Amino acid sequence: MLKALRKFKLIATFLLVVALLTTIVACESDDPAAPAEPAAAATAKPAAAATAKPAAATSVPPTEKPAEPVAKTRSLRLVGVARGGVFDDVDNMNPFILGNEFRSGLHFALPQLFYINLVTGDVVPWAATDWSTNSDFTEYTINIRKGVEWSDGEAFTAHDVQYTYHLLRDNPTLANWGRGADIPRWVKEVEVVDDLTLTIVLNEPNARFPDPFLWTHQGKAPYIVPEHVWSTMDDPTTDMNFDPAKGWPVVTGPLTLVENSPQQRIWDRRSDWWGAKTGFHDLPEWNQLVHIPNTDTAANVALMMTDGADATNGITGPQMKNLLESTDYITSYTGDNPPWGSLDWWITSLFFNTENAPYDNPDVRWAIANAINHQELVDVAAGAMIPTRHLFPEFGSLSPYIDAIQDLLDEYDVTTFDLDKTDELMTKAGYTKKDGIWTDSNGDPFTILIESAGYISDLLAPIAEQLKRAGFDSNFKVSSDMGSRIVTGKPDAWLTGRPSSTTHPWDSLEHYHSRNTPLVGEQASLGSAGRWKGGAEYDDLIDQMEPIPQANTAELVPLVREAYSIWLKDLPDVPIKQWMQIVPFNETHFTNWPHHVDNPMQGAYWPRHGWLMIKDLKLVD
Fold first, then answer.
1. Vertex 540 angle, CA 537 and 545, to 5°
2. Tens of pLDDT along 183-206?
3. C-alpha to C-alpha distance for 534 and 565, rounded to whole angstroms
4. Does domain 2-92+253-340+583-619 correspond to CATH entry 3.40.190.10?
5. Are the C-beta atoms of residues 462 and 310 closer than 8 Å to each other?
6. In what order do the strands lie in the sheet with 255-260?
7. Can you give the pLDDT at residue 434?
């Protein structure tokens, strides 16, 4: 009876999707002040698709032993991260070089030493069992789990870890995995004690080393590659690590790549996986992993409403609300109630290029902050938004530092909506209102164009409208090349997220160290693209903070308070919200999805920790 009801609802919801998409197309507007979600994503898509050059489908030849038939109901179907609506990297399985979008299966297949569940704070040993450090944090000894094997049957050993770290140390351009430039800075040598033991020797003390380099989460910790394969490559810095005839990529996950095309990527489950053979972990209950290219949020909703996927990457709050109300088989991280998503490290802020006037003036930045009505933004997001007053994701490990700055956040509250304060600060900065618009001493209006990408564009129009009501000549646009424009200093203002702290406060605050602030035109990191310089005092506080262990709150808290006080007074950018990964989960075929009470973990499968999410899904009988 339940299946019959679901079939009926699928037909009904399919008709609803057709009506919804028809409405979206009919309501598209060229007016830049029109809401950008989801029409902005839809209009941005053709340009991206036109410039994409999808590779030809790659034929993966059959092995000597044909793959076992795979039951369709046991395929786990995920919407994968793609560019221009296709997988344009089908011949690239090198996780370290540019051009590889490894978040569509390869990140499940390559080995990780440890994972960390940022919600619970638990470190999960995987290819390694434990680690220890010496008293001055200059050496880290790691013990490899016995029995771990590569997909070609070779043993995974300490030599593979040594090879990987030396490769990244000696080739700093291999930075696509996220922290490539930091390996040569920190790693002096990796010494192999025996096949299951190694010691990483650092150039200088670093008590934070496990967070970015050992504990896999978000975009942290390098993938480990097989020495016996990579050492045979002519040049690992350019080799694509893809040769189906040789069985490449060689991995340690329970996966074999069987189809790899611009339209889909399919991995079959390997029955000879080391985890099951050693009794470490059961084979997943799904026996095939299918990745479908991401296009836009409206298409993702359509897939979920017609049982076309088991989970999809981020959608908006209103879309999630509609999915829950229209189906009986979709759930979310918080069930039927907002905010529906799980916390991420991608703190969303309104950024400014502080090298350029008038955004080099703290009074102007604070005036803009006071013109933003956060509660109105929450309403626009249908409750799927948590406003933030600070730079830290609200993970439990960061609570001591967030608690320690509450009085500073009360004194300098960036979420205060106060148009009188905006008027006061703009007047102080030398502006006057003329016909409701702020003008400078030459009579020119204060214009502000806020740029963003399609995936975050749902707040663009509301924020631009709020600033317009406050007297700013504001507008917005969705830029397909926003990332490259931001890091080279081209926009004056932009709305986006950026990598932030996960276990240690240093990561969020270090973005503003002067060593990370190049001149306009020179490339910056995404987190430092605002080019604000806190000065020698701020830099010194960050330098003092860096080597202190996360658990040493007694030493860290005073430094965090001093640095944050400097940051708040100047307010180089305006924190808007804690980023939530709003992911709909289809319970038709699988259960045991992440849940804030029953199964607490981050509910996103495309970051590096995504294996924690999919490995224990339960097949519906």
1. 130
2. 888 999 999 999 999 999 999 998
3. 11
4. yes
5. no
6. 75-80, 288-293, 265-269, 255-260
7. 95
